[in-house]
TrEMBL record, chain A:
Pfam families according to UniProt: ABC_tran
Name of this chain's protein: ABC transporter ATP-binding protein
Organism: Parasedimentitalea maritima
Record key words, sorted: Amino-acid transport, ATP-binding, Nucleotide-binding, Transport
Family to which the UniProt record says this protein belongs: Belongs to the ABC transporter superfamily.
Keyword Manganese: no
GO MF entries: ATP binding
Domain ABC transporter: 16-256
Keyword Transmembrane helix: no
From TrEMBL, chain B:
Subcellular location: Cell membrane
Residue ranges the record marks as coiled coil: none
Alphabetical list of CDD domains matching this protein: TM_PBP1_LivH_like
Keyword Transport tagged: yes
Species this protein is from: Parasedimentitalea maritima
Membrane topology type: Multi-pass membrane protein
Protein's recorded name: Branched-chain amino acid ABC transporter permease
Length: 278, 331
């Protein structure tokens, strides 16, 4: 696919650099055990892995939403455009262009769809006209939201709420969006639609995405580069096209195998032999 | 018109006005509860503190004069000037904003993400602390508050209505202060609703009320919003403090009006500004009318318990109150 080839050949500027971070919740629970990744400007980078692998924690460590959940980065560094950002609060990061769309949507339920979108522009100081123009831009990407602009977000469907959350992030005029599990709980057709929109926002607005997903198949179809997380460690990374063809990824994450089905016991020992980097 | 009907009308109107005063206190609770999910037990004491500060500033009292005198052996109690009411109110608003900032800085910030019950207990502590501080700061004697609001019955209304009934009907007795309070409360509510519906900060306030995490993620500073909310609640407490203080003197019992606000909140719902007003009116009218009609049959003194019994009924049959936000839950 052409999208995968694009970033692997052309060397682009690295926007976000996560260096060997370790995250501990509540002072005792070690969740990330040294995660490193780079997010190039203008790309879609996927962060893959199963439940509890640490995808969400990684994103929250970057956006600094960890602190409100009693988690902290104890080792390593997070750099945005070469600057250390791990001491900054989320608002400062949003102003620098990094915004997170949280897992499970997190719309403001009692606000209308349009008010939800407008809260995304909270940090902006470039005037009402620009904000109104961006509201139109968001409605262009998500025409469904325009129809439902006056309804309370809590009463919209799951897919619409995902759109609200993404549109709200777009309203901050972000450079990088940390998109956490957009496919969660949505019908396959809707997932495809959401990913198409991500792709077009990426191409037309030049927004960089770091995408955490369990739906490996879908994510690798749209991403340029992928990282695979397993119990708090990056176990594999590479251009999305290569990961798609990789036999281990195929077996563990895409559910395909050349050698037929294996028993669970084989899988476990196989997995143990195949730990990368640990 | 029969006198009985006229008396009832008078009681009704007075009930409405008393209700407005209850609603003023309830408003402060609603504001903080909406934005941070904290039931602020200290709201009543904040009204007391605000009223004491206002009186203190107007009289040119030296804050903490007892401590200062005890430590340095001096005898200063007054600066020797009097501050005009308007200026004193502005200064008191400043004090309340400072107080909001301190609460946020010293208490709430360290309790982010804790259980609501822990936050509630923190406000209980805050209430007793503030009570002590206001005594230390301004002294514990009963003070008279006069910011120039009209008081006493309105002769105009009395004269206008005297002709309605027979000879032993003297016209409606309606307190001027209550009428001022009604107007002020109406303005306050309109202002608050406009602020929270149509301004950026108001929208952010509601966003924070809905989902802290999401608000953080779009770059809303929780610290700022909470200082804002506590400041607005402080301002509402000041307004309530002025009205109640003018009515019954600035004294410790002022902080107990908070207890009257509880049934109002249960009726109106903890999350609705109009609900606080309507709840206040229902309680005010309800307790006066109940006393008027049923009171004589049961030996009177129903005003003390009527509101709470009504609140109990609401808790059983409609826990979110009349206007409380329905808990939106998608399955």
């Amino acid at each position: 696919m052409l999208d995968a080839a694009k970033t692997s050949d052309v060397q682009t500027e690295t926007l976000l650099e996560v260096n060997n971070i370790e995250v501990i919740y509540n002072h005792v629970i070690l969740v990330l055990k040294g995660v490193s990744l780079n997010v190039p400007k203008g790309g879609i980078t996927a962060l893959l892995g199963g439940n509890g692998a640490g995808k969400t924690t990684t994103l929250k460590a970057i956006s600094n939403l960890l602190r409100s959940e009693r988690g902290e980065v104890t080792k390593g560094s997070v750099k945005y455009r070469g600057q250390d950002v791990h001491e900054e609060d989320p608002a400062a990061l949003v102003r620098q262009g990094v915004i997170q769309v949280m897992e499970g949507r997190h719309c403001f339920e009692h606000l209308t769809v349009e008010e939800n979108l407008l809260t995304g522009a909270y940090t902006r100081a470039d005037g009402k006209a620009n904000i109104a123009a961006d509201l139109e831009m968001v409605y262009n990407y998500f025409p469904r939201l325009k129809e439902r602009r006056k309804s309370q977000a809590g009463y919209t469907s799951g897919g619409e709420q995902q759109m609200v959350a993404m549109g709200r992030a777009l309203m901050s005029r972000p450079e990088t969006v940390l998109l956490d599990e957009p496919s969660m709980g949505l019908a396959p057709q809707l997932v495809e639609q959401i990913f198409e929109i991500v792709k077009s926002i990426n191409e037309q607005e030049g927004v960089t995405f770091l995408l955490a997903e369990q739906n490996t198949n879908m994510a690798l179809k749209y991403a340029h580069y992928g990282y695979i997380l397993e119990s708090g460690r990056i176990v594999m990374d590479g251009p999305a096209a290569e990961l798609r063809e990789n036999p281990d990824v195929k077996e563990f994450y895409l559910g395909m195998s050349d050698e037929g089905r294996k028993s669970f016991r084989d899988v476990r020992s196989y997995r143990r032999r195949k730990r990368w980097l640990s | 018109m029969p006198d009985q009907f006229l008396f009832a009308t008078e009681v009704f109107i007075n009930g409405l006005m008393a209700g407005v005063l209850y609603a003023l206190v309830a408003l402060g609770f609603v504001l903080i509860y909406k934005a941070s999910g904290i039931f602020n037990y200290a709201q009543g004491v904040m009204a007391l503190f605000a009223a004491m500060t206002l009186v203190g500033i107007m009289n040119g009292q030296v804050p903490f004069s007892h401590i200062i005198n005890a430590v340095f052996g001096t005898e200063i109690h007054h600066f020797g000037w009097h501050v005009p009411a308007f200026l004193a109110i502005i200064l008191t608003v400043g004090v309340m904003v400072g107080f909001a900032w301190l609460v946020q800085r010293l208490v709430m910030r360290h309790l982010v993400g804790q259980e609501p019950i822990i936050l509630f207990m923190a406000t209980i502590g805050l209430a007793y602390f503030l009570e002590g501080v206001s005594d230390l700061m301004w002294g514990s004697e009963i003070k008279k508050l006069d910011v120039g609001l009209p008081q006493g019955g309105s002769f105009w209304i009395e004269d206008m209505t005297a002709g309605l009934g027979s000879d032993n009907f003297y016209g409606f007795f309606i307190d001027n202060l209550d009428m001022v309070a009604t107007v002020v409360a109406a303005l306050l509510v309109v202002g608050l609703v406009l602020f929270s519906q149509y301004t950026k900060q108001g929208r952010a306030m509601r966003a924070v009320a809905d989902d802290h995490q999401a608000a953080l993620s779009v770059g809303i500073s929780l610290n700022f919003i909470w200082v804002l909310v506590w400041s607005v609640a402080g301002f509402v407490a000041l307004v309530a403090g002025i009205m109640w203080g003018t009515k019954s003197g600035v004294q410790f019992s002022l902080s107990l009006i908070a207890l009257k606000a509880l049934p109002v909140l249960m009726l109106g719902g903890f999350t609705s500004i109009p609900g606080a007003i309507v709840g206040g009116l229902i309680i005010g009218v309800g307790e006066k009318m109940f006393e008027f009609w049923i009171g004589p049959l049961v030996g009177g003194a129903t005003e003390n318990w009527f509101a709470y019994v009504l609140a109990l009924l609401f808790l059983v049959f409609r826990p979110q109150g009349l206007f409380g936000e329905k808990i939106i839950e998608r399955v």
